[in-house]
Queue: 2 jobs
Job 1
Amino acid sequence: MIDFEIPDFIKNQQQLIKMVAEQAMRPFSRQLDEHEHERPQAFVNMTWPFTQQMMQRSLKPLMHNGNGNGHAPKKERTGPDYSALALIFMIEQLSWGDAGQYLCLPHPMLGGAAVQSAGTPEQQVRFLKRFTEGTPKWGAMAITEADAGSDNSSMRTTAVLDPDTHEWILNGEKIFITSGKLALEESDGICVVWATVDPKAGRAGIKSFVVEGHTPGVSIAKQEHKLGIRASDTVALHFDNVRVPYENLLGSAEVAQKKSSKGFQGAMKTFDSSRPAVAASAMGIARAALEFVIARLKEEGIEVDYTKPKHQLTAVERDIMEMEARYKAGWLLTLRATAQMAHGESNRLEASMCKYRAGEAVTWITQKAVELLGPLGYSRELLAEKWMRDAKINDIYEGTKQINQLIVARSILGYSRRELK
Amino acid sequence: MLDFRLDEEQQMLVDAISRFAKERVRKVYRDAEEDGAIPAEVVQSGWEMGMLPTAIPEAYGGFGEYSAVTGVLAAEEFAWGDLAVSLQIMLPNLVAIPLMLAGTDAQKEAYLPGFCDERPPRMTAALTEPVVQFDPYKLGTTAVADSDNYILNGTKTYVPLAGDADLILVYANEAGQTQGFLVPAGIDGLTIAAQDKLMGVRALPTYTVKLENIHVPAENKLGGVEGCNFQLILNHSRVALGAAAVGVARAGYEYAREYAKQRVQFGEPIAHRQSIAFMLADMATDVDSARLLVWEAAWLLDKGKDATREITVMKQYVDQLVVNVADRAVQALGGYGYIREYPVELWLRNARGFATFDGLAIV
């Protein structure tokens, strides 16, 4: 039944996260933007306890009787899965605080999403339990390579099985890894690395492997300097004969088969939940910019009158209304893709739709915000110009706008990759 | 809990209207547009789907299941079939819904049972005025109290089927407030000045109506002495038009999509090209986003919340979006898009009307 009601527990959660954003993120936004590669300590310290609680709750069904043997009890799905919804709202509110810092959340993040969607229950417990205890840890995911961006099936990083030790040996270089240094060098986190076990097999050869923090042979090849989200740790990782146990290959034995493309499908499945997450982050930035512009214009005595006919609106009023509309469109598309997840429905089309439309919207909304604020908007005294730079990443990562349009187009036309290139 | 799925009853309703739109409306809409009239039996069949009687309270002979959300679901499906036909099928709403929202008990008793009959009462409403800077909150038509009467003066346009109506709900400016007045046809001073010549929706005849010193009894004022909350009526109207716009946009998008899959140039369907495929992806996303904004607005109305801001933002977004989608539908068909044998040019003409169509539909 069509319903736009947000559950009360999420409303309460949002108030709490808003407090985190106001106290531990916003005051450090400018400092962290101007001093790239500094870590958001206040934010990390404040959020780590939340992550631990959240991960305890999420792993609990897999660790019944507290023995942690990872045999999931058979459970029937009863009612919607609220955790996906809670996560999307959390991401929106944290990104409202600061999108760069949000990406430094001590949390399994994309690596966790991959483990949860492709890993066996045993693997989920083994790799994610660390996020319920001890010092802060990070999760990361390494897919992109210099010559394999949107075309990630042409990746060259290899995984070769050593028959003597029954270990996988990883070699290659991955780029644009969010929190890669935090996960592998600065904590005992995890990084899900995608590599091919058979370069001639194409997609079927691609599998995912969990590399744990401080594993020998992993090095940071480069720390990127970016347009925005500068608080976020973005690195290139070099893998030089990195040995990981056989059981670090995500998924069942079937995935390990050379001819199975289940591994690659697993990567694509991760996108069904990560794309709405990116869209939510985009909409958090959009809301920050929109609220700021409206409040600031109000101080100047400019308030939008929603009862005026269109031809009597000023250019500024029209802009604000369009910003609101595009924000609302992006956010509702995001909520739809999320609600589908919560109800256990397939959302591949809708996930790509919301991701590309939200990225497009936030890019436009934040650029408009800088414009409407005039000389102050362009100034580094305010955060508007930073939000505009931060926003642009949402048009790019987790699949560029264009690759997501391509996915939408193929889906609505019923076309294969061959029919619509 | 957030949910974007129709429930079983809503799905049945949408399926039924969808069938009606495909099997009945789409068979006649093009001739109707050229002839300037919709076959009476199609309008009657649409009426018999019982949307309005379902919504009217049980005390007045209906089923008491009013919901703006259900209303917008129906409006989108009808309008997907054809905008003019949908506006005519929903025409009785223009009087019935304001009566439900704002009527006095006496007014409801007098009029609402009539909307549960086998044939709808012949009623229409007059809001729009023939000016460039039309503002529904600052009407040029005036209503002045004079002992037991109101005296109405002004000119209205876009009044659907005014020529056949027994009663017109006329909106007028009473001391700066927009109020509604139930004006019987044939009253002294009311003249049907001319049939309007519009760019689109030509299957639905609309008229310009002149009101010269019309004396309406005070009890004919919508909502009695208190009057009506016009903003609420306008909001209900705008979600209906928003939903109709989604229907028109979806019609254009779907037609363009199927055309692009069949039209072969350079040895393969043009939909194999990104320039066409991406345009269609954008159109699909536009339609879905517009629908979500309309649903949210309708849901807010059902919750009894003041949704003026959300509805204004939604309406302006959707008004432009439907034009953009319809325009790309014409573009996707190339030269054929410009030819009246194909429907997309009609949808472009109809789409542009939404920025003007205040008060032409209501749920």
Note: The mean pLDDT of chain A is 93.
Job 2
Amino acid sequence: MNFDPRFAGRSFTSVGTRPIRPDGVDKVTGRARYGADFNMAGQLVGRVLRSPHAHAKIRKIDTSKAEQLPGVKAVITAADLPDLTDGDAGMYDILDNCMARTKALYDGHAVAAVAAVDARTARQALKLIEVDYELLPHVTDVDEAMKHSAPLVNDAIFTEGLEQKPVKPSNVAKRSQFGHGDVHQGFGQADFVVERSFKTEQTHQGYIEPHACVASVSSDGTADLWVCTQGHFVYRQHCAQLLGLEASKLRVTSSEIGGGFGGKTHVWAEPVALALSRKAGRPVKLVMTRDEVFRASGPTSATSIDVKIGARKDGTITAAEATLRYTSGPYAGMWAELGAMTAFACYKLDNVKTVGYEVLVNRPKTAAYRAPSAPMAAFAVESAVDELAKQIGIDPVEFRIKNAAQEGTRSSYGPVYGPIGIGPTLEAAKNHPHMKAPLKENQGRGMACGFWFNFGGQTCTDLNIGMDGSVSLAVGTVDVGGSRASLSLVAAEELGIDYSHVKAIVADTSSLGYNDMTDGSRGTFSSSMATISAARNAIRVLRERAAQMWDVPVDDVHWEQGHAIARGEKYGNLSPLSLKEIAAQSGKTGGPIAGHSELVADGAGVSFATHICDIEVDPETGATRVIRYTVVQDAGKAVHPTYVEGQYQGGAAQGIGWALNEEYIYGKDGRLQNPGFLDYRIPVCSDLPMIDTQILEIPNPNHPYGVRGVGETSIVPPLAAIANAVSNAAGVRMTHIPMSPPRILAAIEAEREG
Amino acid sequence: MRYIRPLSIEDAVGQLAGSSGTAAILAGGSDLLVRMKGGFVEPDLIVDIKAIESLSEIRETAEGFSIGAAVPCAVVGENASLKKAWPGVVEAAKLIGSKQVQGRCTIVGNLCNASPAADSVPALVAAGARAVVVGPGGRRTIAVEAVPTGPGKTSLAKSEIIEAILLDKRAPRSGDAYLRFIPRTEMDIAVVSAGVNLTIDEAGVVKSARVAVGAAAPTVLLVEEAAEALIGRKLDEAALERLAKVCAGACRPIDDKRGTVEFRRKVAGVLARRAAMTAYTRAGGK
């Protein structure tokens, strides 16, 4: 039966309630198993040797002394991970990033690895590996890297996306452009124009759980991998390709996950652990230290952005333009492109142009970080929007409402919008009591909007009904933010049974068809669609079985509130059969009852949010305190409102850290100065106010319940909202993120001195 | 690696004196264990001093207070009479680490770790605190500021242990205060800090003062000129202005991941000024 994913207005029994999550008790009692909690008999400890240099040619690696150390069972270098990528440039970059092949491209780049009987032996072995480096000049700053005089990170990179193929290599891997209309003409119609340059420093997702895995390769060529990941099917594909295995021979089981935020969408340690296990003939556990996580996993881009926006006296934006430069680490990426697509997505614009440049630097390979690239673009654009509103003399909320995109608007990145939530979030913000709350001395209020695409993708679920009438739901999207609870609610809703009778698990890669990762805010959106589809398939079987039990035509059997009902005058005396009753007879009516679903979840509805915040600035020290924070966001339909609120609050909390204190600090030697939570300052509890949330529900037309992804949009507005608040509190426009106390104090002093 | 847990300070000193290789003294371990876990140090001998009974006491005597080397800062924070006499020292000790760390960390450990950013040290220096050092040759008492000689370095010999910190009995109309700057609200290390200790007369004129600045030079600075700016005056605007200026000028900070030279200078003055106002109020000044 074809699955119809279109939204059907309906009332809900389970969806929209707030039951306790199925993984909750195990997590709060310490029973839940995270990446480092898996162990196998005979398991070895894996450790990675990393480059201390920002950029260096690897002349020679001598591992002989390490190999001779008693207790060392395997030592590997790039030679043990031969290039099997067959011209796939993206996979080659992943391979090179897992283990440097000819050059170390950043401080922390893996160059060799050992597996030993214990951690101490492994550490000693690393010290015995001799690497002969030839130091090369390096570049870590985005603007410096774009200069013609900058050291080349990779001399095989020629800028893509130019009209003519360049003759010289460059640190700019790609130029991309979006927009429509004629900005030149648009600026000609403007009465006011704001033009500013902004910078944001590189930040890390800061997930509390470091990368961890246990790899076990058997001599028959099959392998198992237990790993903390956002997408075990994708890890399987990548690892199988890099190790030369058939995908079906590698079984990947995902652990519980202590945060990912995009950073666990990418393999680093896993192919290394598998290669070590293959060589040692024993299982290998590899757990990254915090220092390694900072230096050698995938932080987000550092950026440099120029914005120009023009408007008429009446508050209509006539033109908007931005140039966005994003670091991608030492490999080509698409981060500036995402920034260029999202920058002006909140607005209805006749003339808009954005240009993105992907910039190679000697820093770790950039990975996704929650709505990747959008927060920085929103910071620049929403700061300029605020300033423009001020120049015109119009309220910043009214200015945004006047220019907000609507259903039918052609977005700045191309597509025409369906029903969207930007206008409603702005109206809700405008009417929120927060907007009218009084401010004290040295306090400022800021607000900003944000957009994210959201993603659907390949999804597969299995729903099995036990003979006792309870339901097992196997999904393939890793549960990062409470999706097992949400998906159980959806199964209960569709089947018409109680939530407590549904148990959802995340199945391993050998138990279910391929699933894309939990990224792009797709976990609940796509897996709920597949769960609805699987449940409907199961209901079809349940109806058939009921028809058989009653000996009536299946078309006369309907499914209502967890029961089969025979409809029609002649069946008046048949009492409804419950799911439990049908399940109990399944052995006699055709065997187990199940529903399966495989689909591509198209039509993930775009998502918008508006944030408001109040900040107090100490004008003598530049210290900041977040006084109040409110998130208004469209969820389409909040399946489990508590976890939707959790996503809103989590995005805001991460955004607050990013805006105020978090940054990668590189020394002149190109080495990371602060690879730890002491000097990479994510907010602690006492740094944050209670973050208020308001859920709007503008149904997504492409999901049966109207669900939209909610995980990422919440991190898009904070940088801008906080920058606007700090600028209002301090009386000076802040253009460099993070707005750390030294930066704020320097800006205040500069303003005082004129 | 050898771990021992002696029951007397003499035994501890003897074990240290008799050991070859590297040795470390373990009290709360909130610095040592972190450094060991990070692979920065691997001592051959660890001497745990927590079983030495006398080191776990805060004693109030006719001369003042003696705080044992193994007394956790949480215990320091709960001592009512110490808090009343030396609120600045206690508030500094209570800023170290987090609630969990407070249950382990000690002010002697904080002093001997010899970080220029140590929170309790500027307050101790301002308070004129002294350290009782026990070595193979016996006991000696030295000023707290004589202990650290540079980042991670102390004037102590390998076989010496600080037994206790001594604080004087409080003169009437005295007050002290400590303030540090950190970018977040807790779990952080001072970017710059200031401790002020003063005594006033009945008219509110400052009779004596000591001002210390932290995280602004290789060791905590005792800024005598800053004290002079306060002595003989009420805490008027001109005195405070001069205090801030002198403290800013006395700093010899560096640019690093925690702050810039300009920021540290400026904020050292701001904190000294604010700490002086609090100390003055605590002394009963108006």
Note: The CA atoms of residues 388 and 443 of chain A lie 21 Å apart.
